TrEMBL record:
Listed GO MF terms: actin binding
Taxonomic source organism: Meloidogyne incognita (Southern root-knot nematode worm)
UniProt GO cellular component terms: cytoplasm; cytoskeleton
Protein name stated in the entry: Uncharacterized protein
Signal peptide: none
Keywords, sorted A to Z: Actin capping, Actin-binding, Coiled coil, Cytoplasm, Cytoskeleton, Repeat
Family named by the database record: Belongs to the spectrin family.
Record CDD domains: SPEC
Primary localization class, coarse: cytoplasm
């Protein structure tokens, strides 16, 4: 039994650790049976000492040896059980750590794509997709919490080397920051993309309106018969221009704001102005 309790193998994966734990449960049952057996031996030894007083001293010495060995066996059994549990939890932690780091890497790649839209609907769709990614990230918080709790449990284990656990949790912290930074940067770009497409749309609407008005005015050449009619058209055009001026001013102000905010397309915006 001593050899079983001093076995240096504590398992290299969850499956092997579980197998060793089941094996250890059998040893613990045998140890319980041994305690009962020693108690019965004591009863029999007391009877033999009375019956054979000439060997009473040897019987007592044998009893003492058993009594000395039993606590050692119990202590070794507890130590092995604790060590198996620690190793099982540590392997669970490593599996969780690997899963989370792989997930973070995948999400960073997902939010770091360069895809941009060339119309308002496309820009809104990209923002909606980004929002769904944020929901997935939020839903993963329970995984981070579980890993954090398991790491604290391992660190609190007596005689457990916690440096590796602390290092990996520090790696998780840095990876999460990397992901959060990527999410914030992607959201900034997508917001700028939508602003740009809205700006282009409004510019196009203004251009279309102006072209339509100019084409309307160019339909007739001035003559003596239509002179007054053309004057009226120009007056109406001037009024329409005045009504559009506020929208044009707003567009110009928006363009200035986008450029001042270091928009990724500030050169194109300046050209459009």
């Amino acid at each position: 039994m001593f050899e079983q309790l001093e076995e240096p193998d504590f398992g290299c994966d969850l499956h092997s650790v579980k197998a060793l734990q089941r094996k250890h449960e059998i040893v613990e049952k045998d140890l319980d049976g041994l305690e009962d057996g020693i108690y019965n031996l004591h009863q029999e030894a007391n009877s033999l000492q009375q019956k054979y007083p000439d060997v009473a001293e040897q019987i007592e010495e044998s009893q003492n040896q058993l009594d000395d060995q039993l606590p050692t066996l119990i202590q070794k059994a507890k130590m092995r059980k604790d060590k198996l549990l620690e190793n099982y939890d540590y392997l669970r932690f490593l599996n969780g750590f690997r899963d989370i780091m792989q997930w973070i890497d995948g999400m960073v790649n997902l939010v770091s794509i360069d895809e941009l839209a060339n119309n308002v609907a496309g820009a809104e769709a990209l923002l909606e997709r980004h929002q769904s990614i944020l929901k997935e990230i939020t839903s993963k918080e329970i995984k981070f919490k579980s890993l954090r709790q398991l790491s604290n449990q391992l660190i609190n284990y007596e005689n457990f080397s916690s440096d590796a656990v602390r290092q990996r949790m520090d790696d998780v912290k840095k990876a999460r920051k990397r992901l959060n930074d990527a999410v914030v940067q992607r959201r900034k770009i997508l917001d700028q993309c939508l602003e740009l497409q809205l700006f282009y749309r409004d510019c196009e609407q203004c251009d279309t309106w102006m072209n339509a008005r100019e084409a309307f005015l160019a339909q007739e050449d001035p003559t003596e018969d239509n002179f007054e009619s053309l004057i009226k058209k120009h007056e109406d055009f001037d009024k329409a221009i005045a009504s559009q001026q506020e929208k044009l001013n707003n567009l110009d102000q928006l363009a200035k704001q986008l450029v001042a905010s270091e928009h990724y397309a500030k050169q194109a915006i300046n050209t459009k102005r």
